[in-house]
Specification:
This protein is of the alpha/beta class. The chain has two domains: about 80 residues, Alpha-Beta Plaits (2-Layer Sandwich), CATH 3.30.70; about 150 residues, Vaccinia Virus protein VP39 (Rossmann fold). It has nine helices and 14 strands. The chain is globular and about 50 Å long. The termini are far apart. The structure holds S-adenosylmethionine.
Length: about 280
């Protein structure tokens, strides 16, 4: 790949490269080993995958370029973006982009259009302001394949993932979190977005009754493993979809194995720098 000569000192480039799931996984591992985190991968069970890359001139070192060359990924579609546009996506401000066509509005003044869905996020100290890649990956997965039927947002934080599911037609939606701040924040987010939902305080599934068609869980690897080890997961999700994020790349195999042992098969995987997200079904 010969991108470096065309880059200006303050310009950023994004590139999307179609590839196979195996290429996506190998490239992600090699870029992470080089401490290059400006990429995201996405693969589905249809055998298609892609790598998205964003970088400035400094970060696209010869070693990083060699990774793409080694995997014969030499023809990315390049899009030059102004630094202001990149920052508008990455920084909170009043508005931040969660996924293509999906915006988060913390000031209440962004107008929704047919091509722009807007989630309102009242200020709070709960986890989940839309900036973290783990939230963004799950947002994109939810947007791409909206949950249908009873849905649980486990570890809801500000509730924005469950709110997104509800806005896209899932229902009823239950929100749960161990953090009391999340209760207040999620109720406020539901009100601000005109959705209804049951909001419960619970340590994982300990106090969450009912069964679900979809569980959304942006948790840490240890919590996902704890979830997998408890009988409650099978009761809460007898069949359906489990959308997990927040697993660091180094813990992915362990989490995947634990879920496969419960009869789940993985149907999608995303990676953004250090973080991975996946969808499992059974
Ligand atoms: C990574 S944040 C995700 C927040 C939000 N869903 C998002 O995607 O932006 C993880 C959330 O899990 C919650 N959490 C941590 N331990 C938990 C537990 N044992 N049971 C339930 N929730 C827990 C935290 O309070 C936090 O809100």
């Amino acid at each position: 790949m010969t991108l470096a000569p065309v880059l200006g000192p303050r310009s950023w480039w994004t590139a999307t490269m179609p590839c196979t799931p195996a290429q996506a996984e190998a490239v992600a591992a090699e870029l992470t080993a080089l401490a290059f985190h400006g990429f995201a991968t996405s693969s589905g069970d249809d055998g298609r995958a892609s790598i998205e890359l964003w970088h400035d001139r400094q970060s696209l070192t010869a070693a990083v370029q060699a990774v793409f060359a080694r995997h014969r990924l030499t023809r990315p579609t390049l899009v030059q973006r102004s630094e202001a546009a990149v920052m508008a996506d990455l920084l909170p401000g009043g508005h931040c982009r969660l996924a293509p066509g999906l915006w988060l509005d913390q000031e209440g003044d962004l107008i929704e259009t047919p091509r722009r869905m807007v989630l309102r996020l009242p200020p709070s100290h709960a986890w989940g302001d839309g900036r973290h890649p783990t939230t963004r990956m799950l947002s994109a997965m939810i947007l791409r394949d909206p949950p249908a039927g009873p849905t649980l947002d486990l570890g809801c934080g500000t509730g924005l993932l469950g709110v997104l599911a509800a806005r896209l037609g899932a229902g009823p939606v239950t929100f749960s979190d161990i953090d009391p701040l999340a209760m207040t924040a999620t109720k406020a987010a539901c009100r601000a977005n005109g959705v209804t939902g049951r909001v419960l305080r619970s340590d994982l599934l300990a106090r969450v009754p009912g069964t679900y068609a979809v569980i959304i869980a942006n948790l840490y690897a240890d919590l996902v493993l704890e979830l997998a080890a408890s009988r409650r997961l099978a009761r809460a999700l007898p069949t359906g979809r489990l959308l997990v994020s927040g697993v660091s790349a180094g813990r992915w195999t362990e989490v995947d194995a634990a879920l496969r042992a419960l009869g789940f098969r993985r149907t999608a995987r995303r990676r953004s720098g250090f973080w991975t997200a996946g969808e499992w079904r059974r």
